[in-house]
Design a protein that fits this description.
The complex is a heterodimer. By secondary structure, chain A is an all-beta fold. In chain A, 0% of the residues lie in helices and 52% in strands. Classes of the chains: A mainly beta, B mainly beta.
């Protein structure tokens, strides 16, 4: 079974600063996908960024980037130039390639961006 | 594209009654839909995986006779909470994946269920 661990229940960052959210996972699979989802107060799940395990290059989406360390089974999210709208719960998630497309979620990190 | 809707967004029902929640993929066909339950400040817990035209697969510990799931078409899945009790009060979220192509799950906006 796959597990996803987010060890930071809460974090805060000053507006315009940079913050990194941690995620580790455990799996015996070699081919998989990793995701970061954002859940703002509206509770709508929003995909922030995704990474295919076979790709060595770290994914980036504007102010969001990941540090994917496959050997260490680590998948951290870096948010640059933090904005007030980034305040949300962030979930790290895992999906086995070619599977029933089920997601395994971490417990989440509540990020608050301070003005 | 890839919009998923849920209806209703909020429902209050009395203990002992049943309530149905709909999940629709508006602009794509979804072979597989997922139902999650989320308690306040907690993660999403997968309840069941629903495939069009076949019986849903329930996660361990989820009562399939209490949470009835039907996926009758490629754009609609329903979750019926039967004989609801206050402990069933929660936030229910559905997601859907495309019939072909992207592996991504697209999430609905969720339904808040309150059982009084």
């Amino acid at each position: 079974a796959q597990t996803v661990t987010q060890s930071q229940p809460e974090m805060s960052v000053q507006e315009a600063e940079t913050v990194t959210l941690s995620c580790t996972y455990d799996t015996s699979e070699n081919n998989y996908y990793l995701f970061w989802y954002k859940q703002p107060p509206s509770r709508q799940m929003i995909l922030v960024i995704r990474q295919e395990a076979y790709k060595q290059q770290n994914a980036t989406e504007n102010r969001f980037s990941v540090n994917f360390q496959k050997a260490a089974k680590s998948f951290s999210l870096k948010i640059s130039d933090s904005q007030l709208g980034d305040t949300a719960m962030y979930f790290c998630a895992f999906m086995i390639y070619g599977s029933a497309r089920q997601l395994t979620f971490g417990s989440g990190t509540q990020l608050t961006v301070l003005p | 594209g890839a919009v998923v809707s849920q209806h209703p967004s909020w429902v209050i029902c009395k203990s002992g009654t049943s309530v149905k929640i709909e999940c629709r993929s508006l602009d794509f066909q979804a072979t597989t839909m997922f139902w999650y339950r989320q308690f306040p400040k907690q993660s999403l817990m997968l309840m069941a995986t629903s495939n069009e035209g076949s019986k849903a697969t329930y996660e361990q510990g989820v009562e399939k006779d209490k949470f009835l799931i039907n996926h009758a078409s490629l754009t609609l899945s329903t979750l019926t909470v039967t004989s609801a009790h206050p402990e069933d009060s929660s936030f229910y979220i559905c997601s859907a994946t495309r019939t072909s192509g992207s592996y991504e799950q697209y999430f609905g906006p969720g339904t808040r269920l309150t059982v009084t």
